[in-house]
Amino acid sequence: MSRFSKLACVALIGALGATSALAAGKGAAPAANPAFEGLGRAATPAEIRAWDIDVRPDFKGLPKGQGSVEQGQDVWEAKCATCHGTFGESNEVFTPIVGGTTADDIKTGHVKNLQPGSSFPQRTTLMKVATLSTLWDYINRAMPWTAPKSLKTDEVYAVLAYILNLGEIVPADFVLSDANIAEVQKRMPNRNGMTTDHGLWPGKGIGTGKPDVKAVACMSNCKTEVKIGSTLPDYAETAHGNLAEQNRTIGATRGKDINAAKGQPAAAAEKPSANAQAHQLAQASGCTACHGLTNKVVGPGFNEVAAKYKGKGDAEGKLVAKVKQGGAGVWGQIPMPPQSLKDEEIKSLVQWILSGAPAK
Amino acid sequence: MSEHPTRPEGAGQRLGKVRPAPEGFLSQDDIAAVKAGRRDFLRGSFSAAVAAMGAGAAGFSGLARAAEEGDSAILTLPPWSTSLGQGVAARPYGLPSQYEKGLIRRESPGLTRVSGSSVAFTPLQGLFGIITPSGLHFERHHQGWQDIDPSRHRLMINGSDPSMVKRPKVYTMDDILRMPPVSRIHFIECGANTGMEWGNVAVPTVQYSHGMLSCSEFTGVPLRWILEDCGADLKKGKYILAEGADGSSMTRTIPMELVLSDEVLVAYGQNGEMLRPENGYPLRLVVPGVQGVSWVKWLRRIEVGDQPYASKDEAVHYIDLMPNGQHRQYTSTQEAKSVITSPSGGQMLLDKGFYNVTGLAWSGRGKVKKVDVSFDGGINWKEARLEGPVHSKALSRFNIGWVWDGKPAILQSRVTDETGYVQPSYGQLRAVRGTKSIYHNNAIQSWKVAESGEVSNVQVL
């Protein structure tokens, strides 16, 4: 208790001190605006420690600790590989983390595969990131995606060491720590790949402050011909559903009836089928964050579930109970959390999954 | 609606001549009643029903043209004129009409792999004015959205070292709602809006090409006032870091200059109510003119510091690849941009004649000064009418009349903002930035009108 009254006191003094600060402000605050007396309280050191987790490029904020590539491999395989692939190469859930960098890039600090003329298909994380602090900070605050902030400090060091080893930035026997991380920074393949030579920072500290593209507002006879550089590919039109249903049915225009264009009656697409409704429910309930219809994400692909239980008459009841209660062990060590939906919703989802989980 | 209203004597015969479409005469309830064999209904309307069925489909529903004696929409009183409507609070939180169900947020199939790190686009093709209804505000989450218990939400202010903030503090929502608020109208646009179209046309409608764009009236407290309450050093602190309370704990660096301008708000209100959970309930940062990712949702902490932070979404994403292989980092400002929202891609013009061409213009550097519209692919331009009042760093609505002669046309809009910056063409933009930038595509959008009336997405260089 006494600690809290002391804190309140500090806050009060703080608030009083703020009176003059506010009054001296730019005047946008109403003139009669007294300091925010009585609002807020001092943050305790423990509270600041709990939330102030950011790590800057100069490694300010980095907690002490260490982890080896070998330990990192265990963390990776248990907690990361399901989504990012065993070698950080997976493109299923997100773009690949590892790939596309070379020993030469480590020397130059410029990734060759970003240079003009490269035909490398993707931009992986290691190809882009210039600052190692970024990866430490991000893994620590946000990964694993479904259980963020669950890693211990040493696990973050270890799993980052493993990623760096996959990118051949550190050797297999490496132990990454707060003591040597600045040295490793000097080996980041794209460390020299960033520029702030642009006018898109709304402050003085960064860039030129000036727009790079200059157009003029010509009003008549501005050119002699109209060059069309690109038109809509057919697949792109039909990939977005029926445009007739994405527009108002009154007014100056109607949406284009994609089904009519394909020679099908428009009405066929109007009411979502039972499958489409189940698919929507699965999306709305977050199932598809962990299950692909045809691919594994965190949990099995729904097609795999259907295949596994095909012909097993008692599957429906069992799976309904499993989805409700959650659990692990059937598909691997990662558990499914209990899903809080209405019983009949879970039942309809399970029936749909067992029927092969058709999208439509 | 158990009783069917009686119709005037002889109405059926007159209706027969007008040839109404069946759906213009029989409501769903009526049809159900016929099928159920309700004799009282049949007695009242039998002849009319037969006449209507016999007439067959009379073309585009809703396009009924008045024939000899008049329009069935007038001559036959509709159920809503002849029955009792629903009571108050039948829907305690109001919903759009059932006829508006096409205008919803939608994902672009194949753009992302999981819905928790994805985008749902605002249906700009059907919206009016400048305010985006909160339920249609675009969504972009990196780790799903949360519905946070406001009584357990906290905002912490601290410094990258103790000298930056004299009195690190914690505020509850009670504290923040007691502070004096301001309300301002601002646009928010994702830095990747129109990003799919850097290289070529990729999507059919303005919803997918420009729908990571919304505009709301936000209510909140200027961040500067709160920083001053904590004794922050606003000179030494050249940057702030904003951090979210969700799983991703999104972090972004923001220049102190913007905070000092009093434009940056710690906001809880959106269009008169609290923020929607998808938009950061109960607290988000509003950073006018800057790409949406900086408007950190579920805001839990502000750190005052003297260096930028190179967070994941400013060191791995939201960096713009230039033709020379370098990435531009810390590109935050959304430069002036405009788009015609109707007629727009995927729409069909009904007929020749008059159309109001309408669209949106905005600039992250201030107010929109003017919008020019071209109907010939950019050879000649006419100044459109801007609807006022024009707010700084907000959407502005423009309108211009056009008589379509049935011939092919290419519609474009081009904004000039108060700094004199003019929206570039694709050719001009690509000459400097190439085609791999992903972010900050503010090129002039072109919609081609074919003789059939079909409007489609094309790029004019």
Greatest contact pair? A-B, 118 and 143 residues
- What's the helix-strand series of chain A? HEHEHHHHHHEHEEHEHHHHHH
Tally of distinct domains of chain B? 3
Q: Give the strand line-up of the largest sheet of chain A.
A: 2-3
CATH architecture of the domain at 66-185 in chain A: Orthogonal Bundle
Main sheet specs of chain B: 5 strands, mixed
Cα(first) to Cα(last) distance of chain A is 61 Å
Helix/strand-derived category of chain A reads mainly alpha
**Major pleated sheet of chain A:** 2 strands, antiparallel
Instruction: Say which CATH homologous superfamily of the largest domain in chain B is assigned.
Output: Oxidoreductase, molybdopterin-binding domain
Low-pLDDT residue intervals, each spanning 5 or more residues of chain B: 1-27, 33-64
Protein model, in words:
The complex is a heterodimer of chains A (360) and B (461). By secondary structure, chain A is mainly alpha-helical. Among the domains of chain A are: 40 residues, no CATH class; 120 residues, Cytochrome c-like domain (Cytochrome Bc1 Complex, Chain D, domain 2, Orthogonal Bundle); 81 residues, Cytochrome Bc1 Complex, Chain D, domain 2, CATH 1.10.760. In chain A, strands 2-3 form a two-stranded antiparallel ribbon. Chain A is globular, with a radius of gyration of 28 Å. Chain B is of the alpha+beta class and 461 residues long. Chain B has 3 domains: 69 residues, no CATH class; 211 residues, Sulfite Oxidase, Chain A, domain 2 (Alpha-Beta Complex); 122 residues, Immunoglobulin-like (Sandwich), CATH 2.60.40. Chain B is built from 10 helices and 24 strands. Chain B has a 5-stranded mixed beta sheet with strand order 4-3-12-7-8. In chain B, strands 5, 6, 9, 10 and 11 form a 5-stranded antiparallel beta sheet that branches. A 5-stranded antiparallel beta sheet of chain B has the order 19-18-22-23-24, with no helix packed on it. In chain B, helix 1 packs parallel to helix 4. The longest helix of chain B is centred in the N-terminal third of the chain and has 17 residues. The chains are: A mainly alpha (360), B alpha+beta (461). At the A-B interface, helix 1, strand 1, helix 2, helix 7 and strand 4 of A face strand 3, strand 4, helix 6, helix 8 and strand 7 of B. Strand 6 of chain A pairs antiparallel with strand 16 of chain B, so a sheet runs across the interface.
